[in-house]
Amino acid sequence: MPIRIQLLPDYVHVNWHGELTTQDLDLLSVEMPRIGWQIGHAPNVLHTFDETTGSALRYDAMHSYGRNLQQVKLPNPCRVASVCNHTIGFGLARMMQLINQNPDLDMKVFSEKEAALCWLTETPKKPE
């Protein structure tokens, strides 16, 4: 599987590599809720795509994954940052950002990891 998930103190790092497949989304669908239960809250997530070589992900699979995310009631708001240095990761991350309809899930796409981590770990501003 071209996905590695690492639980870090401040966030979960999802490192995508190789050719991306629908099985990767299936694994995320299982592992992210498991990690949330384990730590007692919905974590912030950093996705990196530095080592991806291609994608076999179809739009319908990504759309289905996004619809499932929309129905998940998170125990707290969280952020998802995607760091993309090439077109494969950027296209997938932007597509997921556009598909996302979960009000507790804030997604952003970055070209630099430092900027993504800064946004990911800062305290969100309260709406006025």
The percent range for strand residues is 25-35%
User: How far apart, in Å, are the first and last alpha carbons?
Assistant: 44 Å
Strand order of the largest sheet: 1-2-3-4-5
Shape: globular
Work out the helix count.
4
Structural class: alpha/beta
The residue fraction in helices comes out at 40-55%
Could you give a short account of the major beta sheet? Answer: 5 strands, mixed
**Arithmetic mean of pLDDT:** 89
Low-confidence segments, given as residue ranges, are none
Element order, helices and strands? EEHEHEHEH
- Rg on CA atoms, Å: 14 Å
What is the number of E strands?
A: 5
What would you note in describing this structure?
The chain has 128 residues and is α/β, with parallel strands linked by helices. The protein contains 4 helices and 5 strands; from the N terminus they run ββαβαβαβα. The model has no long low-confidence stretch (mean pLDDT 89).
Structural descriptors:
5 strands, alpha/beta, 128 residues, 5-stranded mixed beta sheet
Short overview:
By secondary structure, this protein is α/β, with parallel strands linked by helices. Helices cover 41% and strands 29% of the residues.
